[in-house]
Amino acid sequence: MLHLERVRAGYGSTPVLHGISLSLESGEIAAVLGRNGVGKTTLMRAISGTIPCNGGNLSFQGNDLGSLSAFKRARLGISHVPQGRDIFPKLTVAENLRVASSAVGKSRGDDLEDLFEQFPVLAEKRRARGGSLSGGQQQILALARALMSRPKLLLLDEPSEGIQPSILDEIATTIEQINSEHGIAVLVVEQNLDFAARVAHRGLMMDKGEIIEEMDITQLSRDRALQRRYMAL
Ligand SMILES: Nc1ncnc2c1ncn2[C@@H]1O[C@H](COP(=O)(O)OP(=O)(O)OP(=O)(O)O)[C@@H](O)[C@H]1O
Ligand SMILES: [Mg+2]
Known about the structure:
The chain is α/β, with parallel strands linked by helices. The chain has 10 helices and 10 strands. The strands form 2 sheets. A 6-stranded mixed sheet has the order 6-7-8-3-9-10, sandwiched between helices. Strands 2-1-4-5 form a 4-stranded antiparallel sheet, with helices on one face. Helix 7 (165-182) links the parallel strand 7 (153-157) and strand 8. The radius of gyration is 17 Å and the shape is globular. The two termini are 32 Å apart. The structure holds adenosine-5'-triphosphate and magnesium ion.
């Protein structure tokens, strides 16, 4: 459903992505792995349209994304949960969710109740401010918010970052459920290999602005030498 061919992007005159090629099938979860600063976040931004591409081809379900704004890509079904989650700390949980549906020009009042049913932790906290939630609860809020636009593809940038180990399991289960119950494809950036091995079907290793290899994540998560070589862990 998603195809990138030699995509180039960066910031101003600084290139970061030097020709990224990758494909994601519908219903699939793939993980993008790689050490700090190789361009994983930049790749997510280039797909969601947060930054423009300066070369190559990018398509989603047969639509050429190259000339489309982030807003139009969101309407096509691409939803991006950025690194650090970016929820609105002063808005309540319910307001955070409502803002998301109006941002893509879709009014989804009834979806809110569905989401509260699916995520009881958010229902309990619906009147609490986003900033008062724990890291794990904020991540669940960010995932629920991304679902408000009824996406077909979720881009998740380090969902496990800054989350207590005891809550990681719940976040992984949430991602698995989103994928299996709604058939939503997921491209997830991760540095936590155990987490990536659990949720993803495929691993794509990134280095210096390129996807260099497809990886067996379970094998990578057990092999320290491979980790040192590819992830500098
Ligand atoms: N907004 C920005 N403006 C200018 N340069 C940026 C910007 N964001 C990132 N960069 C640079 O682009 C390169 C790739 O950064 P990016 O954030 O994509 O890496 P990453 O793989 O996501 O790293 P991390 O694992 O730390 O999240 C880095 O050299 C970074 O300094
Ligand atoms: Mg990043």
